[in-house]
Amino acid sequence: MDLDFDIVDLDPVDHPEEGDTAPDFTRPLVNDEFWEDESLASVCADSDRVVLVFHAMDGAFPATYIWNEIRDRAWHEQATVVGISISTPYEHKQLLKEREIEGDYRLFSDPANGVAQQYSIDMALDGMAGIEEPRPSVFVLDSNRTIEYVWVAQEWPDFPDYDDVEAQL
User: Fold this and answer.
1) 26 with 39: CB under 8 angstroms?
2) Do residues 142 and 148 make contact, with C-beta atoms less than 8 angstroms apart?
3) What is the DSSP letter of 54?
4) For residue range 39-92, what is the model confidence (pLDDT) as tens digits?
5) Which positions ≥6 away from 167 have C-beta within 8 Å?
6) pTM above 0.70, yes or no
């Protein structure tokens, strides 16, 4: 497959680091049946380990690649895995269905990109005035939201080292 795009170096950002408490937020959390407002704190409190995956808008090839890899590696068997992007709950329902991850994964909807701003990983989209999305990132959290592992993209497109994430699980 020949993809025609340029790799773009991203500016350094001051994101939360290992040992920090991940900022809490409340957004619509989409599952295979419905969506409702839920906080990250409540997701973490119900799990020993949470993998929080910031990804490109649904339908963009990076989101497809990331969720296919996570699905194929069955991360949900080792941790609670939740995604977050600027996509709407309706788009998230479609992504869950298309990626065949319904029932195993849930996705937070953050159309204004406020959570990425809280985490200092927001980025403007080239050629799309006024539109931004989260920089691809992965945070592994314990039940108290303490960050055990963090990966934040340094270029676009960029993908996590899935083996490194799995080593944390």
Assistant:
1) yes
2) yes
3) E
4) 999 999 999 999 999 999 998 999 999 999 999 999 999 999 999 999 999 999
5) none
6) yes
